[in-house]
Specification:
The protein is mainly alpha-helical. Helix content is about 65%, strand content about 10%. The chain has 10 helices and 9 strands. It has helices at about 1-20, 50-55, 130-155, 165-185, 190-210, 220-240, 240-250, 255-305, 305-350, 355-369; strands spanning about 25, 45, 60-70, 70-75, 80-85, 85-90, 105-110, 115, 125. The strands form 4 sheets. A 3-stranded antiparallel β-sheet has the order 6-5-9, with no helix packed on it. A hairpin with a 2-residue loop joins strand 3 and strand 4. Helix 5 packs antiparallel against helix 9. It is globular and about 70 Å long. Mean pLDDT is about 80; it is low at about 1-45.
Length: about 375
């Protein structure tokens, strides 16, 4: 019963998003001087669902929190540009005044990309966008957390009971080691533990920071998951052996025509493994943020129709938002685990088949018993 209710709620949220995203919802028709504005800008009776949704899930040159009384409350980020014609240019993104002004011969276009005001000027953008800044912050947090825990282990060893973050992280490390690495990688699991732990905690920290209002959804960015998928692809294939590639290029025990067919299928499998990692993490993390954003926007949409409708629907929208938010916390852990576990599985598949691996699996199985 509970599962059916959750599924119905998710379907309803996606359905409302699909309906509302087809057009801009307004309380009055467009006049000749009417502008396309987002929530909190200018006339509050006008509200663009697609603009607000894209602003939330896409990258930006600032951490934008909210608009009030025509003012933008945000943290601007540095703009770093290079043009062969003009050289380097470094300034704050606040100079663009949220896309309403030009600065130093540059402007923000409709897609929030920086381009030159003059024609024929090439621009290379090295700016620190909010995704880049948040990813660096997540990396620094990971390094500080792990070095602090390592320092405690080095000082106290195993004689002193773990405390603080050390007490919280140790069970997670043991879980990745005992339930992810050992069953899939055999005796060679220690070789891959640094990578598996780094991937798990890096994704988890990115997921959790992305749930803070006003922050960027880094793990919901396809470029971020693409890089992680490519790294896993390289680790998987550089960990392979002759047995693995022999089953891909010349599958044993079948007729030659089937060997050729199997080769095509297996080569596609080599590519689809990291592709599945990339799309799964990206889709799951961006979907939750879109549902939460849509539920919040419903308040303003109903308020645009009727003030009393907006006030009346607000408690319902907030209740659903809180419910989905707690699900997103659970999803943050699940997606970090799935990416790490599947990476370990794929590495194990690339290593399996050799005589040493068979002995390793037998040794691990005996150790568990």
């Amino acid at each position: 019963m509970g599962n059916k209710l959750v599924k119905s709620m998710l379907v309803a949220a996606f359905g409302l998003f699909a309906l509302l995203n087809t057009a801009t919802v307004k309380a009055q028709p467009d006049g000749p001087d009417t502008e396309h504005k987002t929530a909190g800008e200018g006339d509050p009776s006008k509200f663009s669902v697609s603009d607000v949704l894209m602003e939330h899930v896409m990258d930006n040159h600032e951490f934008h929190f909210f608009n009030y009384a025509g003012h933008h409350y945000s943290i601007p980020l540095p703009i770093i540009l290079y043009s062969p014609q003009k050289g380097f240019s470094v300034f704050s993104s606040s100079r663009f005044e949220h896309g309403e002004a030009n600065y130093d011969g540059y402007k923000l276009n409709e897609k929030n990309k920086i381009e030159s005001v003059e024609e024929g000027v090439t621009v290379y953008d090295f700016s620190m966008t909010r995704n880049v800044v948040q990813m660096i912050l997540g990396l620094l947090l990971l390094v500080l957390l792990m070095t602090n825990i390592a320092r405690k282990y080095k000082k106290n060893g195993v004689k002193v009971a773990p405390t603080g973050w050390q007490n919280a992280i140790e069970p997670v490390i043991n879980f990745i080691q005992d339930d992810v690495a050992k069953p899939n990688l055999g005796l060679k699991y220690e070789k891959y533990m640094p990578y598996l732990l780094t991937v798990f905690f890096f994704i988890l920290i990115g997921n959790m920071i992305g749930l803070i209002p006003g922050s960027a959804n880094v793990t919901g960015n396809i470029a971020f998951t693409l890089v992680l998928g490519v790294i896993s692809f390289l680790v998987i294939n550089f960990s392979s052996n002759k047995h693995y590639w022999g089953h891909i290029f010349w599958f044993p025990g079948v007729a030659v025509p089937l060997k050729i067919l199997m080769m095509i299928v297996e080569l596609l499998g080599v590519i689809t493994k990291p592709f599945a990692l990339i799309i799964r993490l990206f889709a799951n993390m961006i979907a939750g943020h879109m549902i939460i954003t849509c539920l919040i926007m419903l308040i303003f949409i109903f308020a645009g129709i009727s003030k009393f409708a907006g006030i009346g629907f607000a408690p319902v929208s907030i209740a659903f938002t809180i419910f989905i938010y707690f699900i997103e916390i659970l999803v943050a852990f699940i997606q970090a685990y799935i990416f790490t576990a599947l990476t370990a599985v794929f590495i194990g598949q690339a290593r399996e088949g050799s005589h040493d691996e068979a002995h390793a699996d037998a040794h691990i199985s005996a150790a568990h018993h």
